[in-house]
Every structure is written in structure tokens, then in C-alpha cells.
Input
Amino acid sequence: MNNLLSLLMIAAGAAGIGVGSAINKLNDPLAMVATVRQLVEALDGAVVGVEA
Output
């Protein structure tokens, strides 16, 4: 999973994108934190329509 793929999955209507699974595959805690921060930054700018 990468930032672009996560944005595409959210845009396609995914309710979850498997962040935990992707993070658990990393061996370095610093890499885990960096990956989460990158995803948060990528998703922060995403515009997602929400219906009430």
C-alpha cells in the first residue's frame, strides 16, 4: 500500500484500507511512524464526499 493507492481506495468508497496490516509488516518502529504520518498527510488533503 502507498499514499496514492490509499487515496484511490478511499475515493472508490472503501470503508477501511488495511493500515494496520501494512504497518505490522514493517520491522522498524521509525518506519512505522513515518508511514502513518505519510498516510495522514496524504489523506488530510483528500476530499471525500460523505452522505448523511
Residues 23 and 29 are 9 Å apart (CA to CA). DSSP finds three helices and no strands in the chain. The chain has a mean pLDDT of 78.
